[in-house]
Design goal:
The protein is of the alpha/beta class and 960 residues long. Helices cover 33% and strands 22% of the residues. A nine-stranded mixed sheet has the order 1-4-5-11-10-9-8-6-7, sandwiched between helices.
């Protein structure tokens, strides 16, 4: 017999209301019994002969209940309630009895007598229930007991929660879940349309406060596990079953909470309609706007006013949250503002909150005055009486946020990436700033903090110019890689607060035989690189070998992102690749995925890169032979050859990862990749990596290749023999979104680090590409071949482009028309500082590209630059230096090639590029997806050469 079934038989003679009252009372007595001083004695020692078996008078039980509920009547106090155990002894006055021996009628009468119809509300906190029992049947009884306004929730142990509630509420949903229909309804309901903002959970927006979901708990868990990036929410509201497997239920809820860093769940009956759920949620938001706690707001909305048969699991932090906590944060932020700060507060905001203001006398823009006014409001009895009050608080919150951003922009006390190096000496850690010692345990400690003589500090600051003001801290990943003394990179984590130093992380290394230590520290957030630096020094045999001039250097800073104020809202990337060179000239790659990192020597990749370039050059030399589809003639042969070269590149870079079985599928699923190279010749054609098996020479494209390219994905059940067939989606450039940054600190005249200025920020996401473009071509490109490019610009960009005769004319046209698109089919020659670009028969050195060649001084927009053409050496490496100069002079994006593209074929690529940038029914307008889509379309049309197109710049730019 189940436990609840026992109690149902125990109260069989009672009506439904009486049974609910008796059950509520016996749960209170159960929780109270364990708090008594002699509870253990009663449970384990009391002989059966002492158990009272007659009816205990109502007044005695009432007295115990009165004592238990003391202070809770009509007050915001949580009352502990515990599922009753029939063999538990309890002490009532001088009587000791078992719970099961209590008379249910007397219990019901005692509960009713306690309230005597005077208790308005009561808040139950269920602290224990039997895991083997269905929850919904007994949980709903708590709502049916007296009094009328009763609140109940089950305490949830949110051990891995990240509790951070925003206001207005971020209401999350998954695309293709039927809950999306409810979201569309809520957008038009008052006050939710003012007090929430909807968030579609995907790579771009992974965090929310409340997530609505329709489906079972197992389906929710599967959805979270399949989501490409970690997701955070405070509360799941789930319309669906969760008790289909009682044995696994508890573990499943813990897994869901861990995946979503959640603090609670509200499970609703699967039969609840969209209309009822939308209305219930709107009431929930309305209740919160009146400063109700989460448990009170949820119980009223989902049980009393819109019956949905809820089961509510909440952590105590979540249950007790109120909007006045947001008010407290605003108050605290106001008193931290300097007197000169002037938040743009409107009198209308105070009217909504019913805060009396004298327009003539009160300086509402003074932070201290405003803080005092909010402090008084916080203690007012009628605060948040109306929904408008919460809206007014939103408006004040936004004004304070803007004031903080302005003050921070004016003066931000810089913090820096810092390190300390210690060695083990006579059993103690001793700081060492001169050299590393062979075979000696070495501790490297890292943090981000203010200048401190105890720490070795980089010269330039950490890129924190616009930290968010409504976040307490950021979670950052720190990776240490070293090609000579570490088998694989080490990953650690730090918390970076708004002010003061970050937490510290430590790396333990033991230098080996190599004479140099060359550690690269990389700091990332959400899979995207913020900053890298080098920790370098000599490795000696012992202290006697250390010379006076020896020093451990902490240098070579590279800041990839200047703005990190909107990082939480940016898309999360799966894999970051950092390329640099060791001091002896070896090309080196550090790869950092979500849960593992590795290092690779790229020396072998140079030959593969040259072979890829040579293979693609065949197209330029014999265009006619490669003009048919992918599945016939020379195109098929070249596709197979590229797949084999791409597979070799794949094995050169990720071979070590196959030693860990799970990593192969992990890498295949990493769809968003960021590449940062810090040396001019560090170009590796990652876009050509082929992550399927190397196909046979006579392999053909699989039968579904066109359908796969059209949809952008292979069938889930694809079982094609990857050796007999070649799949175009095996190439990274076709199946993944790749963001490239080619940055060389040495390019800066002042010798300081180079920041990317032209990147999307919270205030600027659009990269406009419409309007008149400036175009030019090498004298080697015939006018007839260039004509389709002119036509494509006219049709797709809205105006006929201006064609430059030479570089002087190019600069004049740029200054005159302020174009959004610059396109040049150049001929390149030379290398290094002698690398040149030719248009119209005139040559210019790359390092002579000036600002006037890219954009007018003070222009608000950053142009998209396309450099497409051929080089005489056939390596395509020089294009890296051209890209850097155009980026440095203000280009938002530079599109180039990583293979040789000759004459007329360059024009065909340019035409396809322009038409692809402005596709009529594009799946996405973001740069990363647009470049990916252009390649997919090119393959569908039987063209392989567009595979060599790469974009340097932020993949999050929205093209418009």
């Amino acid at each position: 017999m189940g436990t609840f079934e026992f109690w149902e038989k125990w109260g069989l003679e009672l009506d439904d209301k009486q049974f609910a009252n008796a059950f509520a009372a016996i749960g209170i007595l159960t929780a109270q019994a364990e708090k008594l001083p002699d509870a253990d004695i009663l449970k384990h020692v009391a002989p059966k002969s002492k158990i009272t078996r007659h009816k205990i008078p109502v007044n005695l039980i009432t007295a115990v209940l009165d004592k238990s509920l003391e202070g809770a009547i009509n007050k915001e106090v949580l009352i502990r309630w515990k599922f009753p155990q029939h063999d538990l002894p309890v002490k009532i006055a001088e009587h000791v009895t078992l719970l099961s021996e209590l008379d249910p009628k007397i219990l019901a009468q005692s509960w009713e007598k306690v309230f005597n119809n005077n208790l308005i509300k009561l808040r139950f906190q269920v602290v224990w229930y039997p895991a083997s029992e269905l929850i919904r049947p007994w949980f709903r009884l708590l709502f049916e007991a007296a009094p009328k306004k009763i609140t109940a929730f089950i305490e949830f142990p949110a051990r891995q929660a990240y509790f951070y509630m925003k206001w207005p509420l971020r209401l999350g949903y998954f695309t293709d879940n039927v809950t999306e229909e409810i979201i569309n309804k809520i957008r038009f309901l008052w006050p939710s349309n003012q007090l929430t903002r909807t968030v579609r959970i995907d790579r771009e927006n992974a965090n929310c406060d409340v997530l609505l979901f329709t489906g079972s708990s197992s389906q929710l868990l599967r959805t979270l596990l399949e989501t490409p990036v970690p997701q955070k929410t405070n509360l799941f509201i789930v319309r669906g079953t969760f008790e289909d497997d009682l044995i696994a239920m508890s573990e499943r809820l813990s897994s869901i909470a861990a995946e979503g860093r959640a603090s609670g769940f509200i499970f609703l009956n699967p039969t609840v309609t969209n209309e009822v759920l939308g209305e219930a949620f709107n009431i929930f938001v309305e209740n919160l706007s009146h400063n109700q706690t989460i448990d009170v707001a949820a119980s009223d909305a989902f049980n009393k006013r819109c019956p949905t048969d809820p089961v509510i699991f909440l952590s105590r932090d979540l249950a007790t949250f109120q909007v006045e906590h947001i008010l407290e944060k605003i108050h605290d932020r106001l008193i931290k503002l300097p007197p000169k700060a002037r938040p743009e507060i409107q009198f209308e905001s105070f009217r909504k909150m019913e805060i009396p203001v004298d327009r003539e006398r009160d300086d509402i823009k003074n932070p201290n005055n405003l803080a005092d006014m909010l402090e008084k409001y916080k203690s007012a009895e009628n605060k948040f009486k109306h929904e408008e009050a919460a809206i007014g608080m939103n408006e004040i919150h936004a004004a304070v946020h803007d004031a903080e951003k302005q003050i921070t922009a004016e003066k931000q006390q810089k913090r820096f990436l810092q390190e300390q190096t210690f060695i083990k000496k006579e059993g103690k850690l001793v700081e060492e700033r001169r050299a590393f010692q062979r075979g000696v345990a070495t501790l490297i400690r890292v943090r981000i903090g203010l200048p401190d003589e105890k720490w070795v500090t980089l010269e330039e600051g950490f890129p924190e110019e616009k930290l968010p003001k409504d976040r307490d801290e950021w979670n950052l990943t720190v990776v240490l890689s070293e090609p000579n003394h570490l088998k694989e990179p080490l990953r650690r984590f730090i918390k970076f607060p708004k002010h003061g130093p970050s937490t510290e992380c430590e790396f333990l290394v033991q230098p080996g035989k190599h004479a140099r230590f060359e550690g690269r520290l990389t700091v990332l957030h959400r899979g995207r690189i913020l900053q890298t630096a080098m920790l370098m020094g000599r490795v000696v045999g012992d202290e006697l070998e250390i010379k006076d001039k020896d020093k451990i250097y902490f240098t070579d800073i590279l800041s990839v992102r200047m703005h990190i104020d909107d990082l939480e809202e940016r898309r999360q990337f799966d894999l970051a690749l950092v390329m640099n060179h060791t001091t002896d000239g070896r090309p080196r790659l550090t790869a950092i995925a979500n849960d593992h990192a590795w290092g690779v020597d790229l020396t072998e990749c140079k030959k593969i890169t040259t072979n890829i370039n040579a293979a693609l050059s065949k197209i330029a030399k014999s265009v006619k032979d490669y003009s048919t589809g992918l599945d016939t003639g020379k195109n098929r042969e070249l596709l197979v050859e590229l797949a084999n070269l791409g597979n070799a590149l794949y094995w050169s870079i990720v071979e070590e990862q196959f030693k860990v079985a799970k990593n192969r599928s992990d890498i295949a699923n990493e769809k968003y990749i960021q590449i940062v190279s810090t040396k001019p010749d560090a170009i590796v054609p990652f876009e050509f990596i082929y992550d399927f098996e190397a196909p046979d020479d006579d392999a053909k494209p699989c039968l579904s290749w066109k359908d796969a390219l059209t949809k952008g994905t292979c069938k889930n059940d694809c079982r094609v023999d990857k050796i007999k067939y070649v799949c175009p989606l095996g190439f990274w450039g076709v199946s993944k979104v790749i963001e490239r940054h080619d940055i060389t600190p040495e390019l800066d005249e002042e010798g300081k680090d180079f920041y990317i200025q032209s990147e999307p920020t919270g205030n600027r996401w659009i990269l406009s590409i419409t309007g008149p473009a400036v175009v030019a071509a090498s004298e080697k490109v015939a006018d007839q071949a260039f004509a389709p490019v002119i036509l494509a610009c006219t049709e797709k960009l809205g105006d006929a482009p201006h064609k430059a005769k030479d570089w002087k004319d190019w600069a004049t046209l740029v200054q005159t028309y302020e174009p959004h698109v610059l396109l040049a089919l150049t001929h390149t020659d030379g290398d290094g500082i002698k690398a040149t670009l030719e248009i119209g028969g005139e040559t210019i050195r790359s390092n002579h590209i000036k600002n006037i060649h890219v954009r007018p001084e003070g222009a608000a927009e950053y142009p998209l630059v396309a450099l497409l053409g051929c080089d005489t050496s056939g390596t395509a490496l020089e294009y890296g230096s051209h890209v850097r100069w155009f980026r440095r002079k203000g280009a938002g994006v530079v599109i180039g090639t990583i293979a040789t593209v000759f004459g007329g074929h360059a024009a065909k690529v340019a035409e396809m590029l322009i038409r692809g940038l402005k596709q009529d029914n594009a799946k996405s307008e973001r740069l990363g997806e647009v470049i990916q889509s252009i390649k997919q379309q090119a393959l569908l049309e039987g063209m392989l050469i567009p595979l060599c197109i790469v974009a340097y710049g932020d993949a999050d730019w929205r093209l418009k």
